[in-house]
Amino acid sequence: MNKKLALEKLKSEIEANTKLPLKKSNLVFGEGDINSPVMFIGEAPGKNEDLEKRPFVGRSGQLINKNLEKINWKRGGVYITNIVKKRPPLNRDPNEKEIESFKPYLTKQIEIINPKIIVPLGRFATNYFLPTAKISVDQGKIFEIDGRKIFPMFHPAAALRGTKVMKQFEASFKKLGRIVDNF
Ligand code: URA
């Protein structure tokens, strides 16, 4: 089966699963170039994402877009999704049960897209892949799991809250550009 069909099938499977938590929210499956070597993975959709059924369309998304432009990449040239694919109420953090419920789907989504490098955004997404990592220490470093690179970065919302984090976020984005240029 080709990638596009496999992803459509996966999306339908999520839609058909009535046992998943966060029933009141819309499904935000993910979007972008399904052949990209780079897959950004955030935490969970927020209000804007839930309304538009697209990941990272609010202020955090705009910061990602701006940094992609700076390294001459297009938003549509990367793939973007979240570990939890429905919005938790009032934008609270996703809990263990929610993360676990969506895990089989994210695992399959990664398998289908098969990126060379995964960029978890923020603490939750980083600890999903690297349970002992500390975002403030390990962002901007390259890890490897099952032959795939993992490059944690600060969540853009954290970058928007503080100048120091913003500087590190921008520096890591540039580093990501250099890493991928050398693939
Ligand atoms: N924050 C996230 O982690 N994901 C989104 O899609 C939007 C905001």
Describe this structure in words.
By secondary structure, the chain is an alpha/beta fold. The protein is built from eight helices and six strands; from the N terminus they run αββααβαβααββαα. It has helices spanning 3-16, 47-52, 59-70, 96-113, 122-129, 135-138, 156-161, 163-181; strands at residues 31-32, 38-42, 79-82, 117-120, 143-145, 148-150. Strands 1-3-2-4-6-5 form a six-stranded mixed β-sheet. Helix 1 (3-16) packs antiparallel against helix 4. The longest helix is centred in the last third of the chain and has 19 residues, at 163-181. It starts with a helix and ends with a helix. The mean pLDDT is 97. The structure holds uracil. Uracil binds at residues 42-46, 49, 55-56, 60, 82.
Q: Look at the helices and sheets and give the structural class.
A: alpha/beta
What is the H/E order? HEEHHEHEHHEEHH
Average pLDDT figure: 97
How many angstroms separate the termini? 26 Å
Radius of gyration: 15 Å
What are the distinct ligands in this entry? Answer: uracil
How many H/I helices?
Answer: 8
Low-confidence stretches: none
Q: What fraction of residues sit in β-strands? A: 5-15%
Helix content: 40-55%
Outline, from the CA principal axes?
Answer: globular
- Largest sheet geometry: 6 strands, mixed
Counting DSSP E segments of at least 2 residues, the number of strands comes to 6
* Main sheet strand line-up: 1-3-2-4-6-5
